[in-house]
Amino acid sequence: MRTYIAAATSLDGFIARENGALDWTDIPGQAAEDHGRDRMEAATDAYLIGRGSFETLMELYGWPYAKPVWVMSRSLSPDDVPRALRDKVVMTGGSPAEVIGQMRAAGFARVNIGGAELCHSFLREGLVNEIVIHRLPVLIGSGMPLFGSLNGDLPLKHVETRAFPSGIVTSTYELALDRTADRT
Q1: How far is residue 130's CA from residue 2's CA, in Å, rounded to a whole number?
Q2: Which pTM was predicted?
């Protein structure tokens, strides 16, 4: 199974404001551009997000996913999922490696990992194969950073960078040392 992080960040590296708001992501001209989202969505089997992302989505934005979503949480239970989403959302716990094993056993081949804290933990555990960053031409000054502390350097192999007229720059990286080969 392959896992990846795909995130829009401000130029100063934040994925959301402190309160989770994404109002800064509305960049003039971006709607007419193909940033690869449709291609990535088509190749994705499921999403894995953390409790914070789940709660922020529910509170601020509603439900954007058409594919299965697993929510990794130690504090939420299946009863915390709104009835309308119970056939679309799986609550799960355990370590990152255990959750990857559960998702592999469920038959998923390509999983998008989302949410700052979840991304941090999966990177620390060496459970990410690819990172796609969409850098938006805006500085927001503070917020939730995409990356946090790691156990050491994670060398990346640059795959591609594309710049768009809106000022959005999309870069794709793979982990240079495939530390995940036997784990995902």
Answers
A1: 8
A2: 0.86
